[in-house]
From TrEMBL:
Record carries keyword Transferase: yes
Taxonomic lineage of the native organism: Bacteria, Pseudomonadati, Pseudomonadota, Alphaproteobacteria, Rhodobacterales
Name this polypeptide is given: Glycosyltransferase involved in cell wall bisynthesis
Organism: Cereibacter ovatus
GO molecular function, one term: glycosyltransferase activity
Family matches, as CDD domains: GT4_PimA-like
Amino acid sequence: MKILVVVSEFPKLTETFAYRNVVEYERLGHEVRIFHIKRFRKSEMVHDFMRGLVSRAFTFGYVSGPAVGALALEAVTAPRRLGRLLADVIGAYRGDPARGLAVMAYIPKALALGRWCRRAGIDHIHAEFAGHPATAAMIAARVAGVRFSFSAHAHDIFVSQALLPEKAREAGFVRAISRYNIAFLQRLPGFPAGKLRLVHCGVTRDRLQSGGPQPPGQGPFRILYVGSLIQRKGVRHLIDALAALPADLDWQARIVGGGDLADDLATQARALGLDGRIGFEGPQPAEAVTRHLGTAHVVVVPSVIGERGRTEGIPVVCMEALAHSLPVIASAVSGIPELVEDKVTGLLVPPGDAAAIARALCTIAADWPAAAAMGARGRDRVAAEYVVEDNARQLVALMEETR
């Protein structure tokens, strides 16, 4: 089967879940290309496992020959289809004109993509994210005369629901990564609930081969955060929690990731007298993250609800940590409690509650056998539901069913 995967940006360090699926589709014998709506991100770090995907990713310029030509051809050969599309977009985004203008800007390249799909013999288009990628996939599928589907992850459904029911009705299926997302989408007026399929994100099976963390002993209790340094990740609350830890607890923390708040968070740590105990490691490739997981005792995922409802789905770092049998402390938001079940596979805290994070860290440090047992149960849950090889195979089967 020839599959086209549509994303907003490529490459993107924080979207390994999408690229892991592509690698797996190819391992299963399918031919895959990646279309990114925005221009290629030349300065972005590329994980080793996805270097081979770079040559198979492409886009069209917003006012390129293919885009302008496709718009002109559509206006001449399928004016009703183009008129319906423009009316749908104008109607759906009447209350959010900025987002609507963004859609209008990429309509020509989405039309060009549809013509490319037809020439290339694409069998199925799958969009990662229910926002712009799914809209572009829907437009391309209309032009190419093929089926499409899309994944619903997190803020792609929480921030704006414009066109969501319409896209779902045309899609062969809608993949939701959590039961939380399914419940959210089922409540949307006009959304076809029968199209929903639960298929988690996942980690590669080899991650389950880790021997598990060493118990705290000689040396400090090692705390790890991995993720973007942006508001909705809640890292400032983790730093406040670290400042509240008891003076007699020997600890060190590593913060792995980059983002707009990197300087502010480093300043916060210095102001609290923690700069000698917190290492800001910057963005790291997946292979380096694995090494950090191998030396940690606990992973903290202190997510909060961001602006306009932006928040997590189920962060892959939770899956990565539990695959290594590491105990996880995470905020009880969105679909996280489906994986990090309080006192079973980890500890849950209210979002933004630094004192609760500090108490949870003390609990892990004080009772390592109980913490290790949570990590082991978490590994079992990941093995049962969150392995990318299994979940990518499910996605391919759904694509084949809806061809």
